[in-house]
Protein backbone atom coordinates (compact mmCIF):
# COMPACT_ATOMS: atom_id res chain seq x y z
CA UNK A 1 0.00 0.00 0.00
CA UNK A 2 1.36 3.44 -0.94
CA UNK A 3 2.21 5.76 1.92
CA UNK A 4 0.00 8.49 0.48
CA UNK A 5 -3.02 6.17 0.18
CA UNK A 6 -6.17 7.95 1.47
CA UNK A 7 -7.53 4.66 2.87
CA UNK A 8 -4.37 4.19 4.92
CA UNK A 9 -4.54 7.78 6.14
CA UNK A 10 -8.17 7.28 7.24
CA UNK A 11 -7.36 3.97 8.93
CA UNK A 12 -4.44 5.44 10.85
CA UNK A 13 -6.39 8.56 11.80
CA UNK A 14 -9.25 6.59 13.33
CA UNK A 15 -6.99 4.05 15.02
CA UNK A 16 -4.66 6.66 16.54
CA UNK A 17 -7.61 8.71 17.78
CA UNK A 18 -9.45 5.76 19.34
CA UNK A 19 -6.56 3.46 20.36
CA UNK A 20 -3.00 4.27 19.30
CA UNK A 21 -1.39 2.76 22.37
CA UNK A 22 -3.37 5.08 24.63
CA UNK A 23 -6.19 2.70 25.61
CA UNK A 24 -5.36 0.17 28.31
CA UNK A 25 -7.43 -2.94 27.52
CA UNK A 26 -6.15 -4.96 30.48
CA UNK A 27 -3.60 -4.10 33.14
CA UNK A 28 -0.33 -3.55 31.29
CA UNK A 29 -1.80 -4.18 27.81
CA UNK A 30 -2.36 -1.29 25.38
CA UNK A 31 -4.41 -1.38 22.16
CA UNK A 32 -2.71 -0.06 19.03
CA UNK A 33 -5.51 -1.06 16.65
CA UNK A 34 -8.96 -2.58 17.02
CA UNK A 35 -10.85 -3.71 13.93
CA UNK A 36 -14.11 -5.51 13.50
CA UNK A 37 -13.52 -9.27 13.63
CA UNK A 38 -15.55 -9.66 10.43
CA UNK A 39 -13.50 -7.04 8.52
CA UNK A 40 -10.82 -9.13 6.83
CA UNK A 41 -9.45 -6.21 4.80
CA UNK A 42 -8.73 -4.06 7.87
CA UNK A 43 -7.29 -7.05 9.71
CA UNK A 44 -4.95 -7.70 6.78
CA UNK A 45 -3.94 -4.03 6.76
CA UNK A 46 -3.19 -4.05 10.49
CA UNK A 47 -1.20 -7.28 10.16
CA UNK A 48 0.81 -5.88 7.25
CA UNK A 49 1.58 -2.63 9.10
CA UNK A 50 2.79 -4.52 12.17
CA UNK A 51 4.66 -7.25 10.26
CA UNK A 52 8.14 -5.74 10.57
CA UNK A 53 7.90 -3.56 13.63
CA UNK A 54 10.87 -3.30 16.00
CA UNK A 55 8.77 -4.21 19.04
CA UNK A 56 6.79 -7.24 20.21
CA UNK A 57 3.03 -7.09 19.71
CA UNK A 58 0.11 -9.46 20.10
CA UNK A 59 -3.20 -10.11 18.36
CA UNK A 60 -6.36 -11.52 19.88
CA UNK A 61 -10.14 -11.37 19.88
CA UNK A 62 -12.04 -9.24 22.35
CA UNK A 63 -14.06 -11.01 25.05
CA UNK A 64 -17.24 -10.66 22.97
CA UNK A 65 -15.50 -11.89 19.77
CA UNK A 66 -16.55 -8.71 17.92
CA UNK A 67 -13.11 -7.07 17.68
CA UNK A 68 -9.64 -8.18 16.65
CA UNK A 69 -7.23 -6.37 18.98
CA UNK A 70 -3.65 -5.57 18.08
CA UNK A 71 -1.85 -4.66 21.29
CA UNK A 72 1.45 -4.30 23.14
CA UNK A 73 2.53 -4.66 26.74
CA UNK A 74 3.72 -1.74 28.83
CA UNK A 75 7.39 -2.47 28.13
CA UNK A 76 6.84 -2.12 24.36
CA UNK A 77 4.33 0.72 24.53
CA UNK A 78 6.74 3.70 24.13
CA UNK A 79 8.37 2.18 21.03
CA UNK A 80 4.96 1.24 19.59
CA UNK A 81 3.47 4.70 20.13
CA UNK A 82 6.52 6.35 18.58
CA UNK A 83 6.37 3.95 15.61
CA UNK A 84 2.67 4.61 15.09
CA UNK A 85 3.05 8.40 15.26
CA UNK A 86 6.05 8.20 12.91
CA UNK A 87 4.07 6.04 10.47
CA UNK A 88 1.22 8.55 10.48
CA UNK A 89 3.61 11.44 9.77
CA UNK A 90 5.35 9.57 6.94
CA UNK A 91 1.98 8.58 5.48
CA UNK A 92 0.79 12.18 5.57
CA UNK A 93 4.05 13.42 4.03
CA UNK A 94 5.04 15.36 7.16
CA UNK A 95 8.53 15.79 8.60
CA UNK A 96 9.46 12.78 10.70
CA UNK A 97 10.13 13.30 14.39
CA UNK A 98 13.54 12.53 15.80
CA UNK A 99 13.42 9.21 17.65
CA UNK A 100 14.63 8.95 21.25
CA UNK A 101 17.69 7.00 20.06
CA UNK A 102 18.47 9.59 17.38
CA UNK A 103 18.01 12.42 19.88
CA UNK A 104 20.55 10.77 22.19
CA UNK A 105 22.98 10.57 19.27
CA UNK A 106 22.40 14.23 18.41
CA UNK A 107 23.07 15.24 22.01
CA UNK A 108 26.24 13.16 21.93
CA UNK A 109 27.61 15.42 19.16
CA UNK A 110 27.78 18.30 21.62
CA UNK A 111 28.74 16.40 24.77
CA UNK A 112 31.39 13.90 23.68
CA UNK A 113 35.12 14.35 23.27
CA UNK A 114 34.82 12.72 19.83
CA UNK A 115 31.83 14.40 18.17
CA UNK A 116 32.95 13.27 14.71
CA UNK A 117 31.92 9.68 15.52
CA UNK A 118 28.38 10.66 16.49
CA UNK A 119 28.18 12.98 13.48
CA UNK A 120 29.29 10.10 11.23
CA UNK A 121 26.55 7.87 12.69
CA UNK A 122 23.99 10.60 12.01
CA UNK A 123 25.24 10.92 8.43
CA UNK A 124 24.91 7.16 7.96
CA UNK A 125 21.35 7.23 9.32
CA UNK A 126 20.55 10.01 6.86
CA UNK A 127 22.07 8.09 3.95
CA UNK A 128 19.89 5.08 4.79
CA UNK A 129 16.83 7.34 5.02
CA UNK A 130 16.31 6.66 8.71
CA UNK A 131 16.62 10.31 9.69
CA UNK A 132 15.66 13.36 7.69
CA UNK A 133 17.86 16.36 7.11
CA UNK A 134 14.74 18.28 8.10
CA UNK A 135 14.85 16.95 11.65
CA UNK A 136 13.96 19.43 14.33
CA UNK A 137 17.51 19.99 15.60
CA UNK A 138 18.54 23.12 13.81
CA UNK A 139 21.32 24.81 15.71
CA UNK A 140 24.04 24.01 18.21
CA UNK A 141 25.47 26.95 20.12
CA UNK A 142 29.25 27.43 20.08
CA UNK A 143 29.45 27.09 23.89
CA UNK A 144 27.50 23.83 24.05
CA UNK A 145 30.51 21.75 25.11
CA UNK A 146 31.19 24.04 28.08
CA UNK A 147 28.29 22.85 30.17
CA UNK A 148 25.38 24.49 28.35
CA UNK A 149 22.74 22.45 26.57
CA UNK A 150 23.31 24.25 23.30
CA UNK A 151 20.57 22.36 21.48
CA UNK A 152 17.86 24.46 19.94
CA UNK A 153 14.78 22.81 18.54
CA UNK A 154 12.25 24.44 16.26
CA UNK A 155 8.97 23.41 14.77
CA UNK A 156 9.99 24.19 11.21
CA UNK A 157 12.97 23.66 8.96
CA UNK A 158 14.12 27.29 8.94
CA UNK A 159 17.23 27.92 11.09
CA UNK A 160 16.01 31.45 11.80
CA UNK A 161 12.95 29.98 13.55
CA UNK A 162 15.34 28.08 15.85
CA UNK A 163 16.94 31.33 16.87
CA UNK A 164 13.54 32.89 17.46
CA UNK A 165 12.21 29.91 19.44
CA UNK A 166 15.46 29.07 21.26
In short:
The chain contains six helices and six strands. With 166 residues, the protein is of the alpha+beta class.
Descriptive key words:
single chain; 166 residues; alpha+beta; 2 domains; four-stranded antiparallel β-sheet; two-stranded antiparallel ribbon; 6 helices; 43% helix; elongated; disordered C terminus
Blueprint of the fold:
Elements: H1 6-18, E1 23-26, E2 29-36, H2 40-50, E3 58-61, E4 67-73, H3 77-92, H4 100-111, H5 115-127, E5 137-140, E6 151-153, H6 159-165
Antiparallel strand pairs: 1-2, 2-4, 3-4, 5-6
Helix pairs in contact: 1-3, 4-5
Structural notes for this entry:
- With 166 residues, this protein is an alpha+beta fold.
- The chain folds into two domains: 6-92; 100-165, no CATH class.
- It has helices spanning 6-18, 40-50, 77-92, 100-111, 115-127, 159-165, and strands spanning 23-26, 29-36, 58-61, 67-73, 137-140, 151-153.
- The strands form two sheets. A four-stranded antiparallel beta sheet has the order 1-2-4-3. A two-stranded antiparallel ribbon has the order 5-6.
- A hairpin with a 2-residue loop joins strand 1 and strand 2 (29-36).
- Helix 1 packs antiparallel against helix 3 (77-92) and helix 4 runs antiparallel to helix 5 (115-127).
- The longest helix has 16 residues, at 77-92.
Structural class: alpha+beta
SSE pattern: HEEHEEHHHEEH
Total number of domains: 2
Helix content: 40-55%
User: Separation of termini?
Assistant: 39 Å
Could you tell me the number of beta strands? 6
Q: Shape, please?
A: elongated
Beta-strand content bin: 15-25%
Number of helices: 6
How can the largest sheet be summarized? 4 strands, antiparallel
Question: Mean pLDDT across all residues, rounded?
Answer: 79
The radius of gyration over CA amounts to: 19 Å
Side by side, the strands of the main sheet go 1-2-4-3
Extract low-pLDDT stretches.
135-166
